Amino acid sequence: MAAQRFAEQLGEQIANEFAASQQYIANAVYYDGLTLPRLAAFFYQQAVEERNHAMMMVQYLLDADAEPVIPGVAAPQTSFSDIAAPVELALTQERRVSDQIAALMGVAREENDYLSEQFVQWFLKEQVEEVASMSSLLAVVRRLQATPDFVEDYLAREDRAASADPTAPPAAGGAL
Predict the structure, then answer these.
(1) What is the mean pLDDT of the chain?
(2) Is the model's pLDDT at 72 over the cut of 70?
(3) Which of 62, 99, 134, 158 is 20 to 30 A from 142 via CA?
(4) How far apart are CA 97 and CA 124, in angstroms?
(5) Residue 31: phi, psi to the nearest 5?
(6) Does 87 map to a domain?
(7) What is the C-alpha to C-alpha distance for residues 41 and 47, in angstroms, rounded to an integer?
(8) Closest by alpha carbon to 112, among 1, 3, 12?
(9) Residue 165 is assigned to a structural domain of this protein
(10) pLDDT at site 161
(11) pLDDT digit string, tens, across residues 124-161
(12) How far apart are CA 19 and CA 50, in angstroms?
């Protein structure tokens, strides 16, 4: 059984993950509209990843006999000043999520909820990767902003295709 306070905070994080997923869809659609398919694909994949993070949290609450609440989310930002702006927004979002996940870890520790603390550890590791990936992409986009096709080439070379992480928590509904 998850500590009540942890379950409540995790419920808030579910909302944050769904909001991140929606924002990444908006980023992808922006890039699709500019005919930048690799940037679009990158963010469509990020959207799926964030949605799956939310579903992992839902599954944890189900497994911990806590009632998950599926929240509504605010509309994402859909217009941007230039091709770097969506990546800048994504990096800011990933840094904020890192702080939120760290706070979840703090709540689990304060509540002596060792099972929840163990669950959150995977997300901490994931956030290090997310911030690093978005930081690198932002550096490339800023450097190549005048030649977005070179950003597309960079993404093609990097080919960060998602591979299944055997240490990832299970997601509610499976990895849909």
Answers:
(1) 94
(2) yes
(3) 99
(4) 10
(5) -70, -35
(6) yes
(7) 10
(8) 3
(9) no
(10) 62
(11) 999 999 999 999 999 999 999 999 999 999 999 987 66
(12) 9
Instruction: Read off the amino acid at residue 85.
Output: A
Two structure tokens written together for 80: 């941007």
Tokens of 74: 């605010």
The enclosing domain of 152 has a CATH number of: 1.20.1260.10
CA 29/CA 32 separation, integer angstroms:
5
Paired tokens of 33: 């509209």
Backbone φ/ψ region at 8: left (φ over 0), alpha (ψ -120 to 50), beta: alpha
Asked if residue 129 belongs to a domain, the reply is yes
Amino acid at 105: M
**Is 163 part of any domain?**
no
Overall number of domains in the chain: 1
Q: What is the residue-wise DSSP string for 18-57?
A: HHHHHHHHHHHHHHHHTT-HHHHHHHHHHHHHHHHHHHHH
**Domain assignment of residue 21, given as a range:** 4-70+79-158
Half-sphere exposure of 115 (CA within 13 A, CB side): 9
